[in-house]
Amino acid sequence: MNQPPVLLLHGLARTRISLAGLDRSLRAAEHRTWARTYPSRRQGVAELAEQVATWIEQDLGEGPFDAVTHSLGGVLVRHMAERVPLRRVVMLAPPNAGSDLARSLERFGPFSWLYGPAGRDVARGEGWPAALRAEVAVIAGTRAPSLGNPVSWLSRGIGVFHAERPSDGTVAVDETHLPGMTDFATVHASHTWIMNHPEVRAMVLRFLAEGRLQAGAPA
């Protein structure tokens, strides 16, 4: 199958291992994949994007590429777009509008220690490229709180999210939207483990193959 390699970009304070299950699903569907752990807690968004773009150029050449991202990985893809040509992108729970939760927690000392410069960038959400010259699908989670996402209990306790504003416990659904996105869907999944939800994996494979998340939807 003549398909572009799929870039897998993990989220803040995670590693490439967090996307290992999704990686296996993509490989089983005969996609070539690329994934590396980037130092998400030690650099800001712009610096991380430059580093990851350099790795991709060194490892894979010029592209084009597809990409599947989790959380902060979606923000990095937006910053890399001028260097890394993209065809189709699926963003899982991306804080495309920044994060109200990060803004609420930024004043607490442990936040900077845990999430570093990139966490502060997400709290501000300013000056990011507005859109991508690629087909982009966004999948947002709506399960909050959940036992597998300790931050979701904190966000509920301090009142960042509420019943009228659905979220995955970390990112609100309305914060995931990206101007010009091709497709959008929600699933009952938490922020931490959205990539392992079977419906999400099926939608990822469909969008990369057909340019749509749902079977029967207009391509």
Briefly summarize what is shown.
With 219 residues, the chain is an alpha/beta fold. It contains seven helices and six strands. Helices cover 35% and strands 15% of the residues.
Q: Quick one: biggest sheet?
A: 6 strands, parallel
Proportion of residues in extended strands: 5-15%
Question: Helicity range of the residues?
Answer: 25-40%
* CATH fold-level assignment: Rossmann fold
> What is the CATH class?
Alpha Beta
CATH homologous superfamily descriptor: Alpha/Beta hydrolase fold, catalytic domain
Q: Which blocks of ≥5 consecutive residues have pLDDT under 50? A: none
Structural class: alpha/beta
Count of extended strands: 6
Please write the string of helix (H) and strand (E) elements: EHEHEHEHHEHEH
Mean pLDDT: 91
Radius of gyration of CA atoms, rounded to a whole number: 16 Å
Give the CA-CA distance, first to last residue: 20 Å
Number of discrete helical segments: 7
Q: Going across the major beta sheet, what is the strand order?
A: 2-1-3-4-5-6
Dominant shape: globular
Number of domains: 1
CATH 2nd-level architecture: 3-Layer(aba) Sandwich
